[in-house]
Amino acid sequence: MRKWTRAAFALAIGFTMTLVDVKPMVAFADSNDRYYDNQQHLTQIRADKAWQTVNSNTAMTIAVLDTGADYNHPDLKGNLLPGINLVNAGRSAQDDNGHGTEVTGVLAAKGNNGIGVSGVLWNAKVLPIKVLDSRAVADLDVVARGINTALDRGAKVILMSVSSMSYSKALTNAVNRAEASGAVLIAASGNEGNRVAYPAAYPTVIAVGGVKSNNEPIYESNSGPELNLMAPGLNVYTTKLGSTYGSFSGTSAAAPQVAGAAALIMARYPKLRPIDVRQLLYQTATNLGESGWDKRTGYGLLNVEKAVTSAMSQDFLEPNNVLSRAKAFPIEQQIRGNLGPNDTTDWFKMDVPYDGRVSFTASVNSTVSSPMAATFYSENRTPVTHYIGNGDTITVSAKAGRMDIRLVRNGGVNAFSYVLTSRFSINPDRNEPNDTSGTARPLVGNQISVNGSFHKEGDQDWFSYYVREYGHLDVTVTPDNKRMDPVLAIGKQGQGNSTTWDQLYDNGDRDDPAEHASKEVSPGKYLLRVSEYEQNAVNGEYRLDLSFTPVKKDVNEPNDAYRQASYLAGGTVMTGTLPTTTDSDWFQFTVGSESYVYVRAPFIPVSSGMRIALYSANNFNYALASTNEVAELSDQGKDIFGLRLQPGKYYIRLNSGVPFKYDAYRLTVNQQVLVGGYRDISSHWARSEIVRLSNRGIVKGFADATFKPNQAVTRAQFATMLISAMRSDGLPVASSYTGKTTFRDLPKKHWAYNNMGIAYQVGIMKGYPNKQMKPDQPITRAEMASMIARAHNVLLYKRSTSSYRDVPTSHWASPAIEALTSRDWLNGYGSTFKPQGIATRAEVVVLITKAYKF
């Protein structure tokens, strides 16, 4: 059986009102307890104001179903009755977890006693009933026994800061008995961030959610149509195990505040029925969300002051006599109203979550058999009218969406009050009937999604799926709320209709109830069965997603050895699978002329483990290139590798330490013919000059066989090129720099130290102030012209006119620019020269080629 647990965030887990004297009922504005100022929740729910009217209830028993209570705590022991332990019979109800002590302190820590904290009730008779073990876990039946035990001991208020997403017949019977016995039930809505949990979800149980200090719901607080009230649920200061104090959070902290308010109401009005107490709490709540009730905050924030000082209304939902003023009637809740000669019509609106049936049970204090007519207006349905009397239950079909309800007093009937309790049942899903293997619903396709539900107790949904080829099957069952706990079964039908079943897929829990199956499948018929763990009927839907992936066909097989290598043309995408760790795929390609060959992987099915190696046809013992990080490089969008290859035949071998067969890798081999050893100058305007200077060793490219002709040239690079050109031209150039002048940004370890120093030493290059050479700074076109002019000892003088409109004769580099332009070594850009523009590698190569006539 599934257990109830505390969630991680302090889980949740017509008559005359007669006033009686209850002691003490002294008017106190505040408590004198030491840590009272830490209890901001008491001010938030206006308990401090309520105490001016009533602060205690010692006339009735209040049962707390939890982990027990700390009987040694000085702030609790005066309010505790001898408890009952239903977990370990015969033992005391001493708390062995702490949760019960925290809850009890919020409810009824001894107030105004000068120590510790104050409960909503200062003085009370609290009966701890231990239904949760030391881990705060309980069977469903134990909680039901706890309610019955409380009733047997005469409890009139029963608090349950526990929650379960599972429905229980035993719990249902216990809740119904409590209503009939005149006991008010209060429960935490739960902390799953989902639908209201049981027992809070029952119509006759006050479902309490939690809010922060700004009255916004805490994230974990469950919500939905069953939600009734909100109370502070974040950092609520209370009693702790070991006679200490501290904060705890969750709807567990909110529920005891409402229980305390219910007890204070009953202290003033002991003859109130449970429904009267509930309605008075709802009537006096401070609205938080939409006007009236809403599924996020219920009727609003608990207001203890108004609850204990307001007169109870038999029909607080008025005015609602026209459709535009219709009040909310949530499913799984109760509403109360009056009809009479002066108020003949009441309108309600109901939010129906799914296509289904809504049942209404009526309690009417009229002697007439059918004192009122109820008409139901569901979307796209013809209105339906039923005549209702006391004790009647009617059921109407409803479409998902809004349903309006009009209640009308029948003519000639005296005034009367009514109570309607609603219950909802989801319709059978569209796959029904599919309760047996013989009625299994066929699923067709490789990607399928269907919705289902459990509309009745013991419902099972069967599906069949025919697999035509080997492949992989993924099945996921995802419920739309946590009340549903699906179980998935998958089996393959054999001969004679016998079925071999997998172990049940039941790994989900209430925090994540989805079930997932992933398995290898072979041709044949498979059966799928989806059921609910507790075999409950659940108002909710699940989605079954099925995905079948056939084994990918490798069109290049067999290519497991180099002799079977598939031919690969340049640029062609090669694909394949590697279903085992021992499988290898071989490809071959031919290089016709010296080329730069690079391999790319647009897609790799695995995240790691893929290996590639490149071999020459002349030597399979030594790989020219290899890597084990094909998948990683592919994910990064990088080349797998690239290198220069001479003409000949080459082979690629692929294998993987992580096998895959349901998707194929995709690799390409691209070849770029080299021009002068470069792959990026074939159509460049400086192509011939780059080749000539490269052949003379004056300039060099990069390791990836590029020259990058449009890349900027640094001062260090230009000095090196220029010194190399001078030596190639036979000019006497020193072999090393004397080092007479030092520059703080040009250490001896710099790669261009020697060449820059020589260029400076012979007057070709000049430094900057503060002894800087700025070796890595890009050289400008003006600097380039000046250095070439100095290297050639060109006669420089100031001209009367300039060849370029952006180089006035006053410009410091004008003499050099004009001298080189007149020799046709240097060109501008039409009428401009762009002297501050950055010189590119191509521009420098062309200038050096012209200047030295290479």
Protein topology:
Elements: E1 4-5, H1 40-44, H2 47-50, E2 57-66, E3 84-85, H3 99-108, E4 124-130, E5 137-138, H4 140-152, E6 155-160, H5 169-181, E7 184-188, E8 205-211, E9 229-232, E10 236-240, E11 244-248, H6 251-268, H7 274-284, H8 304-309, E12 327-328, E13 334-339, E14 345-352, E15 356-364, E16 372-378, E17 384-388, E18 393-398, E19 401-409, E20 416-426, E21 441-443, E22 447-454, E23 460-467, E24 471-479, E25 486-493, E26 499-501, E27 515-521, E28 524-532, E29 538-550, E30 566-567, E31 573-578, E32 585-591, E33 595-603, E34 610-616, E35 625-627, H9 630-635, E36 641-645, E37 648-656, E38 660-673, H10 687-695, H11 715-728, H12 753-761, H13 781-791, H14 814-822, H15 841-851
Parallel strand pairs: 2-4, 2-6, 3-4, 6-7, 7-8, 8-9, 12-14, 21-23, 30-32
Antiparallel strand pairs: 1-5, 10-11, 13-20, 14-19, 15-18, 15-20, 16-17, 16-19, 22-29, 23-28, 24-27, 24-29, 25-26, 25-28, 31-38, 32-37, 33-36, 33-38, 34-35, 34-37
Write up this protein.
With 854 residues, the protein is an alpha+beta fold. The chain folds into five domains: 269 residues, 3-Layer(aba) Sandwich (Rossmann fold), CATH 3.40.50; 104 residues, Jelly Rolls; 110 residues, Jelly Rolls; 108 residues, Jelly Rolls (Sandwich), CATH 2.60.120; 167 residues, no CATH class. Helices cover 17% and strands 29% of the residues. It is built from 15 helices and 38 strands. The strands form nine sheets. A seven-stranded parallel beta sheet has the order 3-4-2-6-7-8-9, with helices on both faces. Strands 12-14-19-16-17 form a five-stranded mixed beta sheet, with no helix packed on it. Helix 3 packs parallel to helix 6, helix 11 packs across helix 12 and helix 13 crosses helix 14. The protein starts with a strand and ends with a helix. The N terminus is likely disordered.
